Amino acid sequence: MQWLDNITLQMAIILALLLGFAPFFPEPHIVEKVRMLFQGSLRRPIDIFDLFWHTWPFLLLALKLVRMRQLGQF
User: Fold this and answer.
1) Which of 26, 63, 27, 32 is nearest to 50 (CA)?
2) Which of 47, 48, 55, 64 has the maximal Cβ count within 10 Å?
3) Separation of alpha carbons 42 and 36, rounded Å
4) Are 9 and 60 in contact (CB under 8 A)?
5) Cα distance between the two ends of the chain
6) Domain segments of the chain: what residues?
7) What tens digit of pLDDT does each residue of 7-36 get?
8) Which of 40, 39, 37, 63 is nearest to 51 (CA)?
9) Residue 41: other Cβ atoms inside 10 A
């Protein structure tokens, strides 16, 4: 988990905010893709990839927080 320890918490937060919610107008892609997922209309490969692309920064942030908790830094 050395790679995760090398990522700062601030960087993980910035990635989650910028990549996770981009584009911001008219609505974040993550909101649109999650809505499509719950409606059952997330079928096209590009939409599935887009959901993954906008979700991984949040997963990285969650992993970082769990790792910090394990190390007693949080």
Assistant:
1) 32
2) 64
3) 5
4) no
5) 17
6) 2-70
7) 999 999 999 999 989 988 899 989 999 999
8) 37
9) 10
